[in-house]
Amino acid sequence: MFPTGIFLMSVLISQMQGRGIVGVEGQELVHPKKLSLLQKRDLERIHDSDTPEEYEEELLYEIKLGRKTLTLHLLKAREFLALNYSETYYNIKREMVTRHPQILDHCFYQGSIIHEFDSAASISTCNGLRGFFRVNDQRYLIEPVKYSDEGDHLVFKYNVKAPYATNYSCEGLNFTKKSTLIDAKNIEEHKVEDYHKEKFIELFVVADEFVYRRNSKPQNKLRKRIWGMVNFVNMIYKALNIRVTLTGMEIWSAGDEIEIVSNLESTLLHFSTWQETVLKKRKDFDHVILLSGKWLYTSMQGIAYPGGICQTLRSCSVVKHPCNKIQQMQPNPIPAISEESETSMHTQQPTSGRIQ
């Protein structure tokens, strides 16, 4: 089921600390080479100011990995932010400040490996190449040793070890309407009608004060990490005709808005109540994730309600943020998303769209 899948991916993203994550096997030092790319100037994408973009629309990188040479073909991602995307912070007086930035440029890409039929990539080029790529069933992580896209990089093999999601779905096709959790076997009649329709999920991410303090410098560091997470999730689910967009993020920069305790069930209950009684009064979304770092001494990586996306009060999860650095995009399979579970997605056009 989708919410379980997105929860598991978020946990893996937060876990990612190079060789410390479960499933990583060894490492190899590589030197990506940026290849020249003949580009035709797209007049329709020139901004009114005619200011050139810092990050190119299309990129090619050659990576020699073992005895094989891989060529990454990357296109700038334009579907992971919603048109009504917003960012909320709190000033020193604990006053809420919300803005709707006009995102004209960014460093997040999706793509594939040239001459590899079954491949995918989700890469950030902000400070070197950082992210995930896959060739057939073999998944890799890449991260820079230094902040350069052509300097030394480490590549890790990654073997997925993730539990399967429960095979349940929501009765309704629109999360804004009241829906109930039912056995997926009872919704057979919806399969043919809904299988080919594009579905939409609007995601909202909240970061607690601890996460903010650990990622406040440079100023946009936390934003880039959250964007990288959503870009990766969107790449994965796009293959299933499901579009995941980030509708907003909220940073508790002046103190937590809920009580975060070591008991994860209590923290999840506090968060679910807050998002239903406070957040949803000023923002529409389908699922909300709390990135928290105040319960690091517990062994659990996160918590969510089973089938929560079918119930507005429970469509939330809490994910552990480690003390040391997070990598931006991590590989994770889609855990058992069946045809039945796809009926729980939006089938009408939401407020998400392309970044202009």
TrEMBL record:
Protein name according to UniProt: A disintegrin and metalloprotease domain 7, isoform CRA_b
Keyword Cytoplasm assigned: no
Gene3D superfamilies for this protein: Collagenase (Catalytic Domain)
Domain of life: Eukaryota
Residues making up the signal peptide according to the UniProt record: 1-18
UniProt entry keywords in alphabetical sequence: Disulfide bond, Hydrolase, Integrin, Metalloprotease, Protease, Signal
Keyword Cytoplasm: no
Annotated source species: Rattus norvegicus (Rat)
GO biological process: integrin-mediated signaling pathway; proteolysis
Upper lineage: Eukaryota, Metazoa, Chordata, Craniata, Vertebrata
One Pfam family recorded for the sequence: Pep_M12B_propep
